[in-house]
């Protein structure tokens, strides 16, 4: 109940944030413009619409997680509203988890709105509803589940600007993390090999949640892929939030 | 009446700080600054304890430690006999931070609703309580106004309402009157006294001394992270009668006894000052001897302000 109250308050805070609307409008324009862009390209126009649409949903989902997420905890500390919350019978992990869920709810609704523009756009082009694209959107959400957890983690101990940089870096590195395995195989130093292995396992592998190429090109997706991806996202996010809680428990507010 | 009371064992304190120390690291060189130096402090049930001290003395840090917003380096903090880290005890505490700030996007009603939810107060009771509190702090008209439109004084009032949302047994108020106008201050003072009548224990910090003298049962004075004085106000002030002023007539200036010093002369009246009871008695005897007439004797009590200034001066030396 208390987590729910904090989540709903966070949701209320987020939906009254102008950044949300700016990003959403920009995303909707970008998804819409895919129709025009597709006309300018040679080849299968529907592929451009799908590709650009999924890319836009993913990008703006992550940007929302970063720009709203990094401020959620740090603003409470900076504006000292946290004094009023933590002096109530609330565990610090309840506060953090409530903030996290509130932001996820906001992003879920925003992604839903973007999908509500994207799917009809594909329908208008192809003449059929491609419901498999919904799985693409679902996995984008679960990618944001991980990114939001990082945004909260960083905002617990650093400034909003640094948190944004760190979280965006995680997003970029997370999509390139397979390269650590390639690097491991190419380097000769055992220390470097060990380092790349550690980095590969420590950082999130966001490609585990990426089925955009398969969806756009109608490639087969193994049946276990989606459940695995969701389980991976939830487990990874839970671990990140656990670390955030450990840091937050010890945090003094001066 | 107090003679009998003095021998009774005091009830267990509601708040107890034992040897609490706290330091911060500040500046580029991370210099260690000791904010609290092994302080001991007790707040007893049903009393109003004023926590006095200049800015930067450690008042807010103490309150944050009690509320578990920051942690002491050493020492123990007990609230209702339990460690302050115990989250469940917060159900019995109301806290108003210094210059409180709330969510800009919430209305007064929504804010109280949110805090009430954090206490798990059921919906029906929540409504009644919010209505009651808004009228108590005179904000019924601002219930649907967003916080961003609240003035500093209104924020202070809504802050008081949120501190009372759970009908707490213990109220911790950090500088509750600092941003109020004189009328608001008076209303707040009356409210605090009313809450005391309801049996609540109130611990509040301030640097506005007249407030303390008017409403507190006891005071604790903190300077530079050390509690330099703690006790009943009446006793603190009584201890500090350090001179008497005597208005007399009927004797010449040069005939004044040596046990007193002249302050002023007005027509045939002379105002003199003498220190201590012995000095007073000697002066009276000598005036009588010289056939002088005593018009008035006024004990000059030190105000809390004088005490605080004296202590501050002592500290600086």
Structure overview:
- The complex is a heterodimer of chains A (254) and B (317).
- Chain A has one domain.
- Chain A is 81% helix and 0% strand.
- In chain A, α2 runs parallel beside α5, α3 runs antiparallel to α5 and α3 runs antiparallel to α7.
- The radius of gyration of chain A is 20 Å and the shape is globular.
- With 317 residues, chain B is α/β, with parallel strands linked by helices.
- The longest helix of chain B has 16 residues.
- In chain B, α3 packs across α4.
- In chain B, strands 6-7-8-3-9-10 form a six-stranded mixed β-sheet, sandwiched between helices.
- The two termini of chain B are 40 Å apart.
- At the A-B interface, α1 and α4 of A face α3 of B.
Topology:
The complex is a heterodimer of chains A (254) and B (317).
Chain A (H helix, E strand, L loop, with lengths): L1 H14 L2 H23 L4 H34 L2 H6 L5 H35 L5 H26 L2 H17 L1 H9 L3 H13 L9 H5 L8 H25 L5
Chain B lengths: L1 H5 L8 E12 L4 E13 L4 E5 L6 H8 L7 E6 L2 E2 L9 E4 L11 H11 L4 H14 L15 H12 L6 E5 L7 H16 L3 E6 L2 H7 L2 E6 L2 E7 H6 L2 E9 L11 E6 L2 E6 L1 H14 L3 E9 L2 H13 L1
Parallel strand pairs in B: 3-8, 3-9, 6-7, 7-8
Antiparallel strand pairs in B: 1-2, 1-4, 4-5, 9-10, 11-13, 11-14, 12-13
Helix pairs in contact in B: 3-4
Key traits:
heterodimer, A: 254 residues, mainly alpha, 11 helices, 81% helix, B: 317 residues, alpha/beta, 6-stranded mixed beta sheet, 4-stranded antiparallel beta sheet, 10 helices, 33% helix
Tell me the major beta sheet of chain A.
Answer: none
**How would you sum up the global shape of chain B?**
elongated
Strand-pairing-aware structural class of chain A: mainly alpha
Question: Could you give the order of the helices and strands of chain B?
Answer: HEEEHEEEHHHEHEHEEHEEEHEH
Low-confidence stretches of chain B: none
Compute the average pLDDT of chain A.
88
Residue share in helix of chain B: 25-40%
β-strand percent of chain A reads: under 5%
Q: Percent range for helical residues of chain A?
A: over 70%
Average pLDDT score of chain B: 86
Query: How many structural domains of chain A?
Result: 1
Oligomer: heterodimer
Greatest interface by residues involved? A-B, 25 and 31 residues
């Amino acid at each position: 109940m208390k987590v729910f109250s904090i989540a709903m308050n966070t949701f209320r805070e987020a939906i009254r944030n102008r950044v949300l609307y700016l990003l959403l409008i920009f995303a909707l324009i970008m998804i819409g413009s895919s129709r025009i862009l597709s006309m300018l390209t040679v080849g299968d126009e529907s592929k451009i619409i799908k590709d650009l649409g999924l890319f836009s949903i993913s990008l703006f989902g992550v940007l929302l997680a970063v720009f709203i997420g990094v401020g959620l905890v740090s603003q409470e500390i900076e504006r000292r509203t946290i004094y009023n919350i933590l002096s109530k019978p609330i565990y610090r992990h309840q506060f953090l988890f409530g903030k996290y869920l509130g932001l996820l709810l906001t992003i879920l609704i925003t992604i839903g709105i973007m999908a509500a523009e994207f799917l009809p756009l594909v329908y208008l082009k192809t003449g059929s509803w491609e419901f498999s694209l919904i799985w693409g959107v679902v996995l984008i959400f679960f990618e944001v589940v991980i990114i939001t957890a990082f945004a909260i983690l960083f905002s617990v101990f650093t400034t909003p600007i640094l948190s944004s940089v760190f979280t965006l870096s995680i997003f970029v590195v997370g999509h390139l993390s397979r390269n650590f395995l390639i690097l491991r195989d190419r380097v000769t130093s055992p220390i470097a090999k060990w380092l790349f292995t550690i980095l590969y396992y420590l950082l999130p592998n966001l490609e585990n949640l990426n089925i955009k190429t398969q969806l756009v090109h109608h490639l087969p997706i193994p049946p276990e892929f989606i459940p695995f991806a969701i389980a991976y996202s939830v487990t990874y996010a839970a671990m990140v939030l656990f670390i955030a809680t450990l840091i937050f428990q010890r945090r003094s507010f001066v | 009446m107090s003679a009998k009371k003095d021998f009774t064992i005091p009830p267990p304190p509601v708040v107890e700080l034992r040897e609490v120390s706290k330091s911060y690291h500040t500046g580029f060189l991370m210099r260690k600054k000791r904010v609290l130096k092994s302080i001991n402090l007790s707040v007893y049930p049903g009393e109003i304890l004023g926590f006095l001290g200049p800015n930067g003395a450690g008042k807010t840090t103490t309150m944050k430690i009690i509320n578990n917003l920051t942690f002491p380096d050493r020492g123990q903090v007990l609230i209702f006999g339990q460690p302050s880290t115990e989250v469940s005890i917060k159900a019995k505490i109301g806290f108003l931070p210094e210059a409180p700030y709330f969510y800009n996007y919430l209305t007064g009603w929504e804010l109280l609703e949110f805090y009430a939810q954090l206490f798990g107060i059921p919906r029906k009771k929540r409504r009644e309580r919010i209505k009651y509190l808004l009228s108590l702090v005179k904000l019924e008209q601002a219930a649907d106004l967003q916080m961003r439109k609240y003035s500093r004084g209104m924020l202070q009032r809504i802050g008081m309402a949120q501190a009372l949302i759970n009908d707490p047994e213990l109220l911790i108020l950090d500088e509750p009157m600092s941003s109020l106008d004189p009328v608001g201050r008076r209303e707040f003072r009356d409210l605090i006294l009313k809450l005391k009548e309801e049996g609540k224990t109130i611990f509040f910090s301030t640097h506005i001394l007249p407030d303390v003298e008017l409403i507190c049962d006891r005071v604790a004075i903190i300077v530079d992270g050390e509690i330099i004085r703690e006790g009943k106000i009446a006793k603190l002030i009584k201890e500090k009668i350090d001179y008497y002023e005597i208005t007399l007539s009927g004797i010449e200036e040069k005939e004044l006894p040596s046990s007193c010093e002249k302050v002023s002369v007005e027509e045939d009246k002379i105002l003199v000052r003498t220190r201590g009871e012995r000095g007073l008695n000697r002066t009276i005897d000598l005036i009588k001897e010289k056939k002088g007439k005593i018009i008035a004797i006024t004990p000059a009590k030190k105000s809390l302000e004088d005490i605080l200034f004296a202590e501050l001066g002592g500290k600086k030396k």
